[in-house]
Amino acid sequence: MGTTPGGNVRAGPWPDAPEDRVLLARVARQDRQAFRILVDRHLASIVTLARRMLRDEAEADDIAQEALLRLWKAGDTLDVGPQGLRPWLRRVTSNLCLDRIRSSRRVVVTDEVPEVAEAPTQASGLEEQDLARRVAEAMNALPERQRRALALFHHEGLSQAEVGEVLGVSDEAVESLLARARRTLRQSLENEWKSLLQGES
Amino acid sequence: MTEKRTIEGTGLEAFEQVLERYGSDRTRWPAPVRRDFAGLVAKDPQVKARLSEAEALDRLLDLAPEPAIDTRALADRILGAAAAVAPAVQAPQARVAWARSRPGSAAVAEWPAAALLAASLVLGAVFGVSGVFDRAAAPMVASASADADPDQIAFENDSLIDFGGDLL
Description:
The structure holds 2 protein chains of 2 kinds. Chain A is mainly α. Chain A has 2 domains: 20-104, Rna Polymerase Sigma Factor, Chain: A (Orthogonal Bundle); 126-200, Orthogonal Bundle (Arc Repressor Mutant, subunit A), CATH 1.10.10. Chain A has 9 helices and no strands. Chain A has helices spanning 20-27, 32-54, 57-74, 85-104, 126-140, 144-155, 160-167, 171-188, 190-200. In chain A, α1 (20-27) crosses α2, α2 packs across α4 and α3 (57-74) packs across α4 (85-104). The longest helix of chain A has 23 residues, at 32-54. The radius of gyration of chain A is 19 Å and the shape is globular. Chain A starts with 19 loop residues before the first helix and ends with a helix. The relative contact order of chain A is 0.10. By secondary structure, chain B is an all-alpha fold. Among the domains of chain B are: 12-63, no CATH class; 105-168, no CATH class. In chain B, 62% of the residues lie in helices and 0% in strands. Chain B has helices spanning 12-22, 31-36, 40-43, 45-63, 72-85, 93-101, 106-130, 132-147. Chains A and B meet through α2, α3, α5, α6 and α8 of A and α1, α4, α5 and α6 of B.
């Protein structure tokens, strides 16, 4: 079993699998092996995005499935655009999540899934792992809505308008949440970002 | 949605608000904000310093680990759903093993089919020009065409794969 950086478990060992565009051409011809490789490669990313947006594990999994089945069913009509497959999948996923939110107008979900940060493994050395741990601690200490706003905007790349839709707040409220989150993190991680700057000078 | 600008002023304090709200990545700033602060970084060293600090903070945020998710069961479910949606063409085992060991060599695996097709086109042109084959083989060709599946091309060493018209 291979593992992606960050600890998410992949289902298949595809260390030398072809790049996405080659696999997409095969998926267009209903090649199930190629589809499996793409699922293993991209599923964790879109599930993470969907869970952050919906805060409901089961619904997020449904959305991720729907996004990938759209890829499978598109056949040779699929056009992922110049940015490639992952941005396309993430865009489909976020649009499906927004549709779900709009149709239900649900903000707080009964089965909220708290994010449990994996031990940082993508960092290259012990020092960087320790730094990643401190960043995770600082983010976990933020009020929940500030943390969610920042995760959706910074880590998932949603626009402010989309973050507002997910959280059920106005654009101005999103700006306020992001500003307060960054202000707090700037203070709590002051030693860390100053060390980064000194390391570059 | 029209992007709007909610920052008042264009000085250092306003720039700090921009960095707090949107981060250091200028591609994420609303267009009016980008326009209003376009030249400020180059002109004002304090502004440039604030931008560097915000970039350092954003790099720290990039280090935050992602939540742990085991997607194996979901992947199996998706593949099962895909199997129910449309008939699949199984990739030949030899091709999958090759694909695992030789990254980027997908194009090479396709050439036997393309080469055979090209060869048949050349032969067809030669015989067509000479006219001899037409008279001798017409009955045989007619018989073979009636039996052939126009949507499939079978090769000795490959499983059947529906190329349709996409080799041309």
